[in-house]
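testing teh design pipeline on a random one, pls ignore if ur not involved
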């Protein structure tokens, strides 16, 4: 099968940065669960930074998936939806189900992996409901129902991604000539429904809190914003010339970093606002030739390729790193963070080389357009 290769520089590094933001957030959270001094409740920066990492992942996914679908549509006149689903299955499902197996059946039996001594209780209460939701890729609904599953609760975002993958190519097929309008409409409707669900108007609806929580995790608006940037670039829209501006890029980057460091939360439009900023950063990092920021080196490329594993394994890496620090009497962040990152990278590397790569090897059979990154 002939194929064209699409590659955006610097996005490997950006994927690693997104994963690392989540690792920081969960490190402080799990430190608190383990009775270790932490900043989770005392710092708005720490409490918000994990959400920024996940939201950045969503915008990246929306941008890359949309662009790849646009190229396939242009080159072959039609998007092969079946092949799209097979590629996503090969990339996502093996590691996803491995983590589910570990979290439900293995780690609860190992006492050192208890989080504040309650892992078994959390797993076995409502066990069949929890595992059913995870098996049908609704971990975000499980989280919305307060079904906490140690070492698997972060899979809620993978459920969101899978729901996006299910919908996106179908939208391309049925709205071939109105993609930009549809994506803008998605952002508008998502925001409107989010505000409505949080209002008194619907407060008497049964299970409204679960519905509201689920809708907040179903971040198709962030992925649609990423898709809008892909459309703007692909179709060479006039506004692209304004977005690809080095002064605007540095201003947006500085402004975004300040807001993140200050731990600002912008309420109902928090994700949408930051998604717009992330989209501009993605566009300029990967396409602006005047940018002096270079994340395109062997280390970042490697870390970007294993970023899915970093995200999936990091709670396990955090717990092992914390246990090691406590055992050695080195209960300091100068030990914890290098140890946690090193352990997580090691586990992710082994997984990528000896487990994930086996399935990724089949992707080319179902790819007309290659992303230029084996990690995606």
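output:
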């Amino acid at each position: 099968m002939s194929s064209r290769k699409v590659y955006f520089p610097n996005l490997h590094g950006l994927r690693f940065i997104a994963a690392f933001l989540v690792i920081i957030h969960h490190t402080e959270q799990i430190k608190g669960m383990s009775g270790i001094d932490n900043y989770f409740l005392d710092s708005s920066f720490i409490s918000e930074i994990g959400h920024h990492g996940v939201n950045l992942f969503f915008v990246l996914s929306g941008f890359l998936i949309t662009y790849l679908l646009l190229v396939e549509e242009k080159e072959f006149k039609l998007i092969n939806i079946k092949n799209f689903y097979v590629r996503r299955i090969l990339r996502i499902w093996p590691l996803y189900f491995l983590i589910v197996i570990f979290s439900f059946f293995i780690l609860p039996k190992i006492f050192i992996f208890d989080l504040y001594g309650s892992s078994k209780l959390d797993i076995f209460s409502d066990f069949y409901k929890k595992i059913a939701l995870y098996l049908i890729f609704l971990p975000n609904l499980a989280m919305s129902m307060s079904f906490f599953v140690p070492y698997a609760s972060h899979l809620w975002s993978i459920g969101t991604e899978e729901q996006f993958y299910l919908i996106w190519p179908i939208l391309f097929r049925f709205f071939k000539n109105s993609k930009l309008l549809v994506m803008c409409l998605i952002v508008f409707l998502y925001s409107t429904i989010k505000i409505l669900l949080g209002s008194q108007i619907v407060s008497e609806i049964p299970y409204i809190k679960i519905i509201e929580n689920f809708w907040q995790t179903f971040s198709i608006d962030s992925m649609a914003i990423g898709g809008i940037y892909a459309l703007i670039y692909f179709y060479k829209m006039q506004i692209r010339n304004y977005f690809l501006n080095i002064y605007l890029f540095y201003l947006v980057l500085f402004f975004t970093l300040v807001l993140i460091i200050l731990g600002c939360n912008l309420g109902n439009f928090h994700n949408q606002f930051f998604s717009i900023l992330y989209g501009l950063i993605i566009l300029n990092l990967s396409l602006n030739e005047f940018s002096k920021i270079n994340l395109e080196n062997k280390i970042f490329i490697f870390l970007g390729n294993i970023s899915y594993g970093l995200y999936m394994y990091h709670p396990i890496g955090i717990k092992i790193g914390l246990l090691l620090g406590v055992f050695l009497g080195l209960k300091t962040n100068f030990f914890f963070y290098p140890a946690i990152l090193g352990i997580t990278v090691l586990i992710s590397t082994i997984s990528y080389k000896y487990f994930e790569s086996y399935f990724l090897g089949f992707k080319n059979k179902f790819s007309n357009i290659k992303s230029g990154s084996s990690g995606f």
